[in-house]
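quick one
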Amino acid sequence: MLEVVRKFPEQVEEALAIELNFDIDFSKVKRVVVAGMGGSAISADILSHFSTIPFHVVRDYTPPSFMDENTLFIAVSYSGNTEETLSCFSLARDKCQHVAITTGGKLGEEAENVIKIPSGMQPRAAIAYLLFPMAKMLSNAGFMNIDFEEMIYNLKSNREEMEEMAKEVSNAIHGIPIIYGYGVMGSIARRWRQQFNENAKMHAFDFSLPECNHNEMEAWEENAENITCIFLREKNEMERIKARFDFMKEEYGKKANIIELYAPGKNTFSRAMYHMHVGDLASIYMAEKRGVDTEPVNLIMKLKNVLSQHSRSSS
Ligand code: PA5
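structure w/ 5-phosphoarabinonic acid:
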């Protein structure tokens, strides 16, 4: 997986070059709903922070009831066979204009507008293909404004720094990592957690500021053995957020190891992609350190099989 993940900047370029050949009337679109799970859904989480129109991410069997002819519904599933995403798709397809982002599967067969992405990867390693065609489509429609060139330049010109940071982080993690971020970095923290779970097969947790300051923080009153905190920070973060992080650093630092990471880049999106890539690499180095294989997700597949047997026997 390491070799695939290292090609992220090139994959972003390839993903942005995928042609968007479909017939959507964007002038009717007033909101976006994206359905997906796991490694597919995270792309939408990240993009939701940059949308200029309401943007809702569903990780469930049922899409929201507010969907109508002014909603653009996007189903994102690497395999095209994830049951929750297919369920949302079947409930949304007659109500709104829709697009599917997938390698194929049932979703690829049934959707009218398909963005076909390359197959043969683990979904979470295909993040460039799951995220950037969606970002390009929504940018072309005027619903977000992302400087793709700067972001690619930032990734390409900092390869060694990102590798180094990822190695340092994986060496410094002891026990369970808890990753914290604000705004889009909260979604990137979630991505880090998912990558530690799936690639390194380890427990990890993620929290977003300021919400965690109203609940999770109280757990730090008690002992916090065997925890490493990772703060995904921004140099120009709001004063109030800086004050919160500084407080957390002071208090949590009495009980746990704190790793603070800053990313270069001219804008928040660029810095988010930098932080994301460092996390992706760190999860692979963490897998190496733990002696586990990044590729198989045995329990995820086992459950998918159990559920498919279940629906066959109950139909
Ligand atoms: O990364 C993974 O393998 C998972 O999180 C999958 O993305 C998740 O199970 C959903 O599958 P798919 O992306 O094929 O819809």
